[in-house]
Structures are given as structure tokens and as C-alpha cells.
Amino acid sequence: MMVVYALYGVAALLALAPIAIALGRSPRGSGVIYGASLIVTLTLGMIALLNLFEYSGGVSVVSLPLGLPWLGAHFRIDALAAFFLVVVNLGGAAASLFALGYGQHEDSPQRVLPFYPAYLAAMNLVVMADDAFSFLVSWEFMSLTSWALVIAHHQLRENLRAGYVYLLMASFGTLALLLAFGLLAGSDGNYAFDAIRATHASGGLAALVLILVLVGAGSKAGVVPLHAWLPLAHPAAPSHVSALMSGVMTKVAVYGFVRIVFDLLGPPDWWWSMVVLGVGGITAVMGVLYALMQHDLKRLLAYHTVENIGIIYIGLGLALAFKAHDMPLAAALALTAGLLHVFNHSIFKSLLFFGAGAVLNATGERDMEHLGGLIHRMPQTAFVFLVGCVAISALPPLNGFVSEWLTFQAILLSPQLPSWGLKFLVPAVGALLALSAALAAACFVKAFGVTFLGRARTPAAAGARETDTNSLAAMFFLAALCLVAGILPGFFIDALAPVTKSLVGISMPHQAGVEWLSIVPIAESRSSYNGLLVFIFIVFSGTFAAFAIHRLASDKLRRGPAWDCGYPDPNPATQYTASSFAQPIRRVYGTSVFLAREIGEMPAPGSTLPARLTVELRDLIWDAAYAPVAAGVGYATEKLNSLQFLTIRQYLSLVFAALVLLLLVLAIWP
Amino acid sequence: MAVIREFVFQGAEMLLVLLLSPLLTGFVRRMKARLLQRQGPPLLQPYRDLIRLMRKDVVLADGASWLFRINPYIIFAGTWVAASLVPTFRSGLLFSWSADLIAIIALLGSARFFLALAGLDVGTSFGGIGSSREVMIASLAEPAMLMIVFTLALIAGSTQLSTMAAFMLSSEVGLRVSLGLALLALIMVAIAENARIPIDNPATHLELTMVHEAMVLEYSGRHLALIDLTSELKLLLYVSVIGCVFTPWGIAGPDSGPLALAVGVVSYVGKLAVGGVLLALFETAIAKMRVFRVPAFLGAALMLGLLATLLLFVSRSL
Amino acid sequence: MRGLSFDIAHMLAGSLVLVSFMQLYQDRLYALLNIYALHALILAMSVAWQAFVQDAPHLYLTAVIALVFKAIVIPTALHKIIVKLGIHREIETVVGVGPAMLLGMGLVALSMVVMLRVTAKADPLAREDLAFALSVVLLGLLMMVTRRNAVSQVIGFMSLENGLVLAATGAKGMPLVVEISVAFSVLIAFIVIGIFLFRIRERFDTVDVQALDRFRGERR
């Protein structure tokens, strides 16, 4: 029955779209639509939670007489779908709450409001779909609605370009998924997931499906080198939609990957994990390195999503490896780590995009080089953004650390894997994961430090005002969730138990009953972590130190000008900027990864011209993977262009040739 | 009753690291001075500095925010918690299982995160230079440290420090190439993390190559005292980790009597002294390197750690 | 006893690999020479340990040869040459230190795989030693490839030879004749290279081997 209720919810969301059109530019429109979306997504989230806990992942199925006449449309909620429904609707509810305030400032609400509930509905449908046809239709619906939201602010040329690239990549991804399902369904055309599950694809075919899924779902998730659209499209949308795209839609893509590879494709080969792990490791490091080079706040966040997708894929790859080698407990650990990171990332990435939206609203700026000092003007936003930064940098006691810690524990189990390839790949991936974690911290020191700390660099930043209550409520809610998931991770791990059980046949040991609420993946002598105690310890020792010092020593305070070794400069332009902050890291990594070059132009002595320092970065992935394709397409269109200027006789002969060719094919076809 | 006893030991551990850390710094300073044929400051000088600083007023820069004011407490708390989770004189501490070695490293990472933010808060160029270099160094030192943890964890079969120490004491361990590589890498990381020569110079201001001191330039009074105490704690923490993992002799077991505890304390102090002497020797013998040679130094530590891990992964199949 | 002797041999061979990495990392000539001396010293210790374990007195001779020639004579001589030629003391590398070390890691991994697979049935002591020895050889080669300076190429060559000796002693005894002839061939190579160095220097005023390429018109 659960799935029927959920479908009612989806129908309600879909019904909101025409209402939004009817409301048009009415000033109450955004309040109505976002309020309704908030209620519906909350309900949907509750249904999913109930399904996950109360029925411990029981399956409920429904088929509707829609779509292909011989197939119908199947929908199903099992543990995996329920978990992802929770992620989708939690993100959706938070975004709707945020938008209750944020949406008021929208210039052209009629371009956002109709698509927003439809987009939420589409993501829900993808997760619930139980046959290839409804999956692909929902997937494409999700792509199109999000595309419409990306180009909502179509006045900016770069947004149009982002929309164009996004549409291309989304179609490409759907094509790959279409082919994958085609192969899975076989010649009989068994498009229902149940039928696919029953037949196991053989070696070569399964490999092809794996690659196609990696490309199809990966292009939506933003796996390197298919990430090119993501940092363009995510920032272009309004901020609450950016949060949904980055925090939630990439997770729906991960869902697609997990559903097909872990559920539909049958028992894995060990080398599959090699591919997934390699992709994950490279994605993680490249994503964070790209993010470090950015100075547009929303683009930095979007690139950072790429990094987190890499971390999730590392967890999934390890799970595949353990599953292939029949080590179910380790597989459960790795899968839990990956899925927990899915949940965590959806929370803190939404939070950070909300923060960026609040900043954008208050200052009209996304460029960090024009911000600074916002902590004085927007202290509450600064606080929650800081919480998000700490969480995403995988620092204890917040939640990002827990999932990375679990991933590390899974890596430490992997020497027992017998395959040689994995023996070399896994330590390397571990090093890449560690590197990306450290670089992420650097990245968010930069993001927070340059945006919120220091002195205001422009009048816009100096005149910023704290954002509205609804937006703050959404951000505080997510920040609190970051803390709760960080200090009580045991409950969240237990919630994932039905999911891992259904996918790898076993779940991690029950955590909620462990003494002092710590988490113990394998055995206490091996490893354990207790976020709650660490948190209490830190709070206790911090307050103890503050109290003791204030009481026993001194609590006096004077204000004075900054010291700065005696050379303070009142001009805020002399502060470190985003680019200068990243300079040491650019020197270390950028010279090889981006072929970074610094070109200094010194004017001749006596000249009054300014000296200039320009930095050249090259996106090698774009140059290697996309530029040739674009050039090839350009070349082909130029050649084909001549087809438009033929005589009628030539056109007729073309048609004739095509006809003969087809007949020939028919004749030769066995 | 047993729980109370454990609480007492945990408290004693926290107090011990807090009280010993300025002494270690003073000892290293004095050793360095003696090696340079100078008299050197008295051993207790760091305590006097701390007390003097705590009594002074804080002079807060005009642009400083609330974060700047609470930061010293956060940084200090994070580091103190990390330091008190390392078994020093007695293993099996009450809360040692609440954070394994990975979590301890990450706690230090949290502290560094806030310290780097503090460097950016006032909006001065020195703070920025310090922060940006600190995160660059950390971006290499942290993965190197994690690789070392991997090595140790794979050998001992655990990421818990207590279990590691117990394993190192047992006869199964033997001499291993991976352990040697890990020790070397750990020393390199420890030098970088504690801003010692040749990465950074703890004894200087007004030098364009400084990192740590540049970040904390705007701090004064009790805030500065806390920051100084934190860096002293961090030095102690790294010496303790090296001592706990590589020379675990003398650490008292979870239920040992007063004699074993006394042996534990004495041997711990001895280890600290040896570590201090070695550090002083190393620092006087070597020159500081340019900032952009640091990545090569830490990259080497990372490679050593990775090599050690790789060797273990491969030799598992023997 | 068996465990300890294995551990020490393992440790020494491993340190040899480590010192090879130090050579890759070091880009100052004098320090490089010192590290090479250390390399030879560890080799001598390793050989001596093998002599003790295998109870093969002729290996002691090998150890002494390694100690005297490789750890003392050749470094001193090279030191003198450097002073005499006034060679610039920083070594120009073709590949940066980081990538070179990454390459080195890959080579070590490769030699591990190859050796552990090929010698699956052999005695574990010899297996690991062989794997390490092959790593040392490959790292020596890598050093010769990635350095522009002729002196460091010489050092690379000689550490390569150290790897060969390690392999030979690990494999249960190498005839003394072979060892002596290897030692002499190295000495002769050393002399040839020394003369060669002087000649390059006389003609081009530098020992950067790129000068030779330029002379042949093969400038990169």
C-alpha cells in the first residue's frame, strides 16, 4: 500500500505545476507552491521512513495501466528505494522551506514555480519506478524539468550555455541508459525489473551494461570525465534548485547505478570493482582540485559535489569487490559507508547551497573575490555555513567524518582480497581518498574564509543584511541534522541495515545497542568511534578552559587596529583573495594537473603602468574529451551543410540510394 | 568502583599531557641552546610565558569576529582531547575507544581547520599567507599520516592505539620493512605538523617564510597563551604517538598495580626526553628549506607511507 | 633464529630500497654521494649478514669489497672529481621529484608482482630479497634516466650494480670469481666514466649531458 500513498503524493506534486501556471505572477504564488511542496515532500519522506523502519524494508508494488500497453507502469518501494526516497524528500522539504523565504526575491517566478514541483515529482518517480520504461521516462522528465530550471534566468548568456551543455549531456546519459536497459531486457523485451532480476546477464554482456550504466548514471552524477556540465548547470539555477540538483539529483543518479549494478545485473565480477574504484578515486581528487581553483562560490560547491560523488563511488566499488569475492560483512560495511555518504552529502551540500543562496540574495554576488566580512553582517548564516563546511570537510564530530571513517575501515579490510589488481589499486585509492579529504578541508577554509571572514571587499558585501527566517530555519534544521548524524551515527547505520541486507545479503552488526552509543564496524578491539563522546569531550574541555582562564587569569578585552607585523593596510584589496589563497596548492598540484602557468608582466623601470600577474589554467579533460568531439561535430555539420544546396535530381537520387541500401540490408540480413 | 577508577585515570592522563607539554617545549629549547653553546632559557620558562600571557589583556583587532574569539578554545579543546586519547603511561584508557588513530588525526585536522580560519579572520596579508601555506602543507601531511595509520593498522589489525601498542609488544611483530618506512614517514610528518625546522621555524617572527606564526599573528593575551599551549600539546602528542607505537615498552596494562604505573610514568617521561633530545639535535643540524621545497619533502613522506602500505598489501598474499 | 635472521635480512634489503628512494629524492651532489656511500654500507651489511646466515665465508670478502670500494673509495674519488671540476652542485632533473618518486613506487610494485609470482615456490627469504633487489636495480635505472648530470648518472649506475650484488648474495651464494669480476668491471666502468667526465668537461665546460645532445644536434 505504501507505494500507492507515495504515488498520490507524486500526483499532488504534479498537480501543483498547472496551479503554478495558473497563479502566474501573483505575489502569493511562491508561498502557495513552496508551502504545498513542503507539506507533500514531508509526507512522502514520512512514508519512506515508515517503510524503512516499520516494515524494515518490506516491498510494496503497484502497476498502473499507463505507458506501453503490454507493459504498464510498475512502481515499487523496497528498502533501497525507501532510503533514496528519504534522501530525495528530505532535500526537497528543506529546499521548499528555504524557498519560502528565498523564492520571494525571484524576479520571474513564473519561470521557476511550475517546474519546481514537477522536478520533485520526477525524482520521486525515478526512485519508485519498477520497469525500464517508466524509469527512463521519469529519468528524462527529471532531466527536462531541471533543464528548464537551469535556464530560468535566461538573460545571462552563460546560463544559456550551461543549459545547452546540460541538455546535450543529459541526452547522452539517457541514451547510454536506454542501451543498457535494452541489453538487460534481452531480445524478449522483458522491461519489468522483476524479469530482468530473474535473468542474469552473461560475462561480456554484463560488462557492456556496466560500462553503459557507469556512463549513463555517471554523467548525471558528475563522474570525471563526464562532469563537464555539472559545474555549469548547478550554479546557474536558483539556489534552492542548485541545492536540489547537487544534493539530491546526483543521488538519484547514484540510485540508478546501485539499482542496476547491485540489484539487476546479477553477481558481480571482481574487475567491475576495479573500474568503479578507479573512476571514484580519480573523480574524488580531480573534483576537489577543480573546486580549489574556483572563485565563484556556487561553482566551487558544484565542483565539490564531483568530489563527493567520487567518495561515494569508492564506497560502492569496495562493496562490489567484497561482494564479488564473497566477503558479505565487508561488503555491507563498504556499502553502508557509501550510502551513508549519500545521505550526509545530500544534507550538507543542500545546506551550503542554501548559504550561498542567502549570500547571493544579500549581496547579489557569487564571486568570492567581491565578498568578505559577511560574518559581521550575517552572523547566523555564517554560523550554519561554517557547520556545513566542517561537515563536508570530513572533520569530527560532524557527519561527513563518519562516512569517510567507515570507508577507511572498509579499505583496511581489503588486503584479504585475493585479486592482484585490487591489491595495488586499493592502497592507491586509499591514498587518493586521503588526499581528497585533506584538500577538501583546504577548499572549505578558502570558501568560508574568503566569503565570510576578513574585511568586505565591495560595498555590496559591506551592506549585506541577514537573510529571512524561513531560509534560516531550513539551514538550521540541516545544520542540526549534520550534528545529530555526526554524534549518533549508530542509528543512521542501523537504518541502512535493510538496504544492505537486500543488496549484499547481510547487514552491519546492530549499532544502537553498543555501549555508550559508539559505532563498532567489526570488533571493538579493531576500531570504534564515538562521535557523542568526542563532542562532549570537546565541549567540556573548551568551556572548562574558557571558564578557568576567565575566572583565574584575565577576562579583559581591548579593541585596537590590526597588528599585521606593523604594516597593516587599510585597503581591503590587500587581503588574501580566493586566488591567492589557492596559490600554494596551485603550485603544488596545478602545474601538472592543469598545466598552470603564471605570467608576470613587469613594466619597464620608470613606466607608470601596473605590473600584471596572470595565471593560465587549462582544463585538460575538456581539451582531451570534449574539444575533439565538438570539433568533430563542427566539421561534420560543415560537410553536411552542402546537403542543403542540392538540386532536386540529387535529392531524389539520395532517397533512391537510401531505399536500395535498405533493401540490400534486408536481402543480406540472415 | 571500577568506573570511578577509570575516570580518575582518564583525568590523570588529561592533566598529565597538559602539564608536561610546556616542559617538553622548554626542554627542546634548552637542548637547542646548549647545542649552540648558549646558556638557554630555564626549563620552566614556557610555563612562565603562559601565565604571563594569560594575565594580560586581550587586544582584539578591529575587524575580528566572534569566530576569532572562540577559535582558541575550539582549537585547544580539539587538540587536548586528541592528546588525551593517546595512551601515554597506561593503555586501555576509559575513553580510548571513543576515537581511534584515524579519528585522532581528524581531530587535529579540525583544530587546524579552525586555526587556518583564524588566520583569515582579521583580513591581514600575514594571516592569509600563513593560512594558505598551512593548508598546502596539511594537504600533503594529512594523507601521509593516514597512509602511516594504514600501515600500522594493517600490521596490528586494528586502528586503536591501545591494541597497536599491545601488538607491538608481542613477539609476533618482528622487524618489518613497512614499519621502518612508516617510522621514517611519521617523523617527517611530525616535523611538518609541528612547524619545526626545516619546514617552519617556531622561534621567529617577521620572516616571509613563516607559516604557523603568521597565522596566529593577531592573537594576544590569553588567546595567544591557548594557541601556544596547543602547539606545545601537539608536539607532545606526536612524540607520544611515536613512543606509543614504536617504543611501547613500559606502558602499564589496564589492570596493573602502582609499581607498573610508576614504571609507566617514568618510562613515558624518559621517552619524551629522548624524543626532545633527538628533535633538538635534528633541528640544530639542519637548515630551513624554502617553502616550495616543502611539498617535495612531504610528498616523499606520502610516498614512503604509500610504499609501506603497498608492501603490506602485497606481502599479505605470501 | 630463523624468524630473526629473516627479519634482519628483510630489513636490510628494505633499507636498501629506501636509500634508493632517498637517492631519487636528493638533488644536491654532495648529499647524493653521502647517500650512495650509505647505500653501499647497507649493502655491505646485508652481504655480511647473508655470509653469517648462510655460513659462507667467501661472502665476507664480497662484503669487504663493497665496504672498501663502494662505500669509501669511489665516493671519495667522486667527491674529489667534483671539487676539481667545480661542478655546479645542484642536479637538474628531467622529471620532478614527485613524479620520479611516483614512478619509483610503480617500479617497486611491478618488481614485487613479477618476483613474487615467478618465484612462487622458492624460499620466502630469497623471494623478498629478490623482489627488493630488482626494485633497487630498476630504481638505479630510473635515476640514470631522470637525471641530466653525468655524476648522478654514474651514481645511478653503481646503485644499480648494488642491486645486482644483493640479488646474487640472496640467491644462496655466488661464486667469488663472478663477484670479483663484477667488482672489477664496475671499477673499470668507473675509471672510464671518470675519464669521460674530464673529457666532457674539457670540451664543453659542463657535465650536463644535455651539452652532448646539443653537440650532436639533438637538442630536445
Q: How many strand elements of chain B?
A: 1
Strand tally of chain C is: 0
SSE class of chain C: mainly alpha
> What are the low-pLDDT stretches of chain B, counting only 5+ consecutive residues below 50?
none
Beta-strand content bin of chain C: under 5%
Q: What gross morphology of chain B would you assign?
A: globular
Task: Count structural domains of chain C.
Answer: 1
End-to-end distance of chain C, in Å?
56 Å
| Number of alpha- plus pi-helical segments of chain C | 8
Number of helices of chain B: 11
What is the number of independent domains of chain B? Answer: 1
Name the biggest interface: A-B, 94 and 91 residues
What characterizes the major β-sheet of chain B?
none
Computed Rg of chain B? 19 Å
Question: For this entry, what is the oligomeric state of its chains?
Answer: heterotrimer
Overview of the structural elements:
The complex is a heterotrimer of chains A (670), B (318) and C (220). With 670 residues, chain A is mainly alpha-helical. Among the domains of chain A are: 281 residues, no CATH class; 41 residues, no CATH class; 43 residues, no CATH class. Helices cover 69% and strands 4% of the residues of chain A. A two-stranded antiparallel sheet of chain A has the order 1-2. The longest helix of chain A is centred in the middle third of the chain and has 36 residues. The two termini of chain A are 49 Å apart. Chain B has one domain. Chain B is mainly alpha-helical and 318 residues long. By secondary structure, chain C is mostly helical. Chain C has one domain. Chain C has 8 helices and no strands. The radius of gyration of chain C is 18 Å and the shape is globular. Chains in contact: A-B, A-C, B-C. At the A-C interface, loops of A face helix 4 of C.
